[in-house]
From TrEMBL:
Keyword Zinc-finger: yes
PANTHER family: DNAJ-LIKE-2, ISOFORM A-RELATED (PTHR43888)
Zinc finger (CR-type): 133-218
Region described as Disordered: 393-414
SUPFAM superfamilies: Chaperone J-domain, DnaJ/Hsp40 cysteine-rich domain, HSP40/DnaJ peptide-binding domain
Record-linked Pfam families: DnaJ (PF00226), DnaJ_C (PF01556), DnaJ_CXXCXGXG (PF00684)
GO MF: Hsp70 protein binding; unfolded protein binding; zinc ion binding
Domain J: start-end pairs: 4-71
Organism: Starmerella bacillaris (Yeast)
UniProt cross-references to CDD domains, sorted A to Z: DnaJ, DnaJ_C, DnaJ_zf
The protein, known as: Xdj1 protein
One annotated GO biological process: protein folding
Length: 414
């Protein structure tokens, strides 16, 4: 049904733009919902909306020409056009603000994604677990659609009644100040009836969810931390976030944080450690276990006689670093061991004459245990290279934060 916009604004069909604007401002002040009593507010809103609709058409020269042509020849129905624009949104798409300069602006609601937010948690793993890999179970508690009422929030057979908060309209008005003296009024969905205008009585609510339509569900999620996983790596379990009516379920995002180690330092897939040797070992060579690895196996090195180790020498042991993440076959980084040479504090007069006996190793506090002595005798020495400290790879070149997430489908764990 087409409205007579000239009659709504109280002007003649030949009125000029200034007359139409003055009449609009005067009527807007009279019928603005903030300027009337509570009992008259509903009717004032309807009249105020028609006034704004009439001015939006007649206040624009091009729209006015189209409106006049449609009125004369029975053409375009502007009122139906605006109604269709309102119906194209899930709630009011045309909201008007009022300020002291009597300027009215149309606003559109924010577009929200039809998906629940992701649930994010952090887990810490040790460097030993990074070396060997780990499988663990995480206990999660999330909100899911009530299994008893299937998301209706009411008992079986219950009927809805008109919402008393919004009087069945499904929305309510909210006044928002956007600047001093400037306010905006928005129509927001009613929280009591979720914008439907209808709701169940308290006596008809579901006993399990109490009308919330959701219930807490505790479950276990199997997580596999791959070998060689990098710091801040993300593991995604699809569809394991909180559920919500008429929305897709978000994901469970697990961020893996690698803890620091007291012996080993990580640089990408390479490992760095330090070990002490005596001056005698540095001069005439040795065969010994320098360090025990992350999984407990000994790293035994044989330095042949005649190979003199200088202060700052580094032993590079190939393929003794961390496994390459998601690699096929056994591929590891390298292990770099910085050697610290322990010098004797002083030499006795006899030692000055017999240098070989004078260079006896200084007894370290951390003597080998019986198990380590057994390993020292049985395990074969590993291949290695002797480097200087300047030849070490730059640890800063590794970026442990740039990782690709591993996606897990939740169906795999059911």
């Amino acid at each position: 049904m087409e409205l007579d916009y000239y009659a709504i604004l109280g002007v003649d069909t030949d009125a000029d733009a200034a007359t139409i604007r003055d009449s609009y401002k005067k009527l807007a002040l009279i019928y603005h919902p903030d300027k009337v009593a509570e009992a008259e507010r509903y009717d004032a809103e309807l009249q105020f909306k028609n006034i704004c609709e009439a001015y939006e058409t007649l206040g624009n020269e091009e729209n006015r020409m189209l409106y006049d042509a449609g009125t004369q020849y029975g053409g375009f129905d502007w009122h139906d056009y605006y109604q269709q624009q309102d119906d194209s949104y899930s709630s009011h798409s045309r909201h008007y603000s009022f300020n002291t300069s009597t300027t009215f602006t149309a606003y559109q609601p924010e577009i929200k994604t039809n998906r629940t937010p992701n649930t994010e948690i952090n887990i810490g793993v040790s460097l030993e677990e990074v070396y060997k890999g780990k499988r663990l179970q995480l206990k999660t508690i999330r909100q899911v659609i009530c299994r008893k009422c299937c998301g209706t929030g009411a008992r079986s057979g219950a009927r809805k009644r008109k919402c008393q908060e919004c009087r069945g309209r499904g929305e309510y008005k909210q006044r928002i100040q956007i600047s001093p003296g400037v306010f905006r009024r928005e129509m927001l969905p009613c929280e009591c009836c979720d914008g439907s205008g209808m709701m169940y009585l308290k006596t008809s609510l579901c006993r399990r969810c109490s009308g919330t339509k959701l219930q807490a569900l505790e479950s276990l999620v199997d997580i596999c931390v791959p070998k060689g996983v990098k710091n801040n790596h993300r593991i995604i379990v699809e569809g394991h976030s909180d559920e919500q009516i008429d929305k897709m379920t978000g994901d469970l995002v697990i961020t893996v944080s690698v803890k620091s180690h007291e012996i080993f330092t990580r640089g990408g897939n390479d490992l760095y450690a330090e070990s002490k040797i005596s001056l005698k070992d540095a001069l005439i060579g040795f065969t010994k276990i320098l360090i025990n690895h992350l999984d407990g196996h000994p790293v035994k090195i044989e330095v042949p006689r005649g190979c003199i180790l200088k202060p700052g020498s580094v032993v590079k042991v190939p393929n003794e670093g961390l496994p390459l993440e998601q690699s096929f076959g056994k591929v590891n980084g390298d292990l770099y061991i910085l050697l610290h040479i322990e010098f004797p504090e002083k030499l006795s007069p006899i030692a000055l004459k017999e240098i070989a006996s004078a260079l006896e190793p200084v007894k370290a506090k951390s003597a080998l245990s019986s198990k380590e002595k057994s390993n020292d005798e049985t395990c074969p020495p590993l291949k290695f290279e002797i480097l200087s400290e300047q030849d070490l790879p730059n640890v800063n070149e590794y970026d442990n934060n740039e990782t690709d997430p591993i996606d897990y489908s939740f169906d795999e764990f059911r």
